[in-house]
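Long-time lurker, finally posting.

We've been working with Choline-binding protein (Raoultella planticola) and I want a structural starting point before designing mutants. I don't trust myself to interpret raw outputs, so I'm hoping someone here can both generate the structure tokens and explain anything notable. Sequence follows.
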Amino acid sequence: MIKANIWSGALALVALVSLPLQAAEPVKVGSKIDTEGALLGNIILQVLESHGVKTVNKVQLGTTPVVRGAITAGELDIYPEYTGNGAFFFKDENDPAWKNAQQGYEKVKTLDAQQNKLIWLTPAPANNTWTIAVRQDLAEKNHLTSLADLSAWLQKGATLSSRPPPNLSNARMRSRPLKKPTASSSSKVSCCRWRGGDTAVTIKAAAQQTSGVNAAMAYGTDGPVAALGLQTLQRSAGRTADLCPDPRSARSGAESLSADCAMAAAGLCQP
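Top reply, 14 upvotes:
Generated this for you. Predicted structure of Choline-binding protein:
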């Protein structure tokens, strides 16, 4: 598993503060629309149901703004979110706290509790931030192991065709630091974007050179990267926010409920 050092963000569950754990109404479980969101959302469903908690399946509800809006509006009770996205939610991306996993978690946990009555549960020990993956043959031929290498290569006249997933536009604070190393050679980079493609699709496109694509935006925890013959490029430490997966809950019983959900998320992200 790759642990990228971007905005410091872990995956955690987020829950609303409203109903006790054993409430008669079922727990509305949501997730983002991408592959990892679907996987984590279904794990949460299974954990809750195995403990006798009734659920409503709203997994793969939509992109980050859609799911965020749903939980703040009370349409969801719990879903997995990334701690580093607090920089985006609270329009505070310049705070260095987001580049430290623990500080970012404490900050978003406090802000969401105060402003939205949302509970962030214990985050998973993984950094699911954005990274750039290039074809292995391209990396080996041109000695590309880092974004600095990529920038130098592009400045020599090389060209790169990449494919970003749709959720990238909803997480601009994560992608902006990735642009800096290649800013001087951005004219050498072309982007192909297909509707409905998450990172599973972008990675496959780079591996198969669809439409000439030879690079893709990927998550730090994307397993198919190595399996499909791609290589992620390293970046300078502290350049971007850590994105640690975290269960976020909106129920008052979330503290007792969260232990099982957090363990499920953490177990998924262990090396």
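Before you design anything, note these points.
The chain has two domains: 11-128+241-269, 130-232.
The first strand starts at residue 11 and ends at 16.
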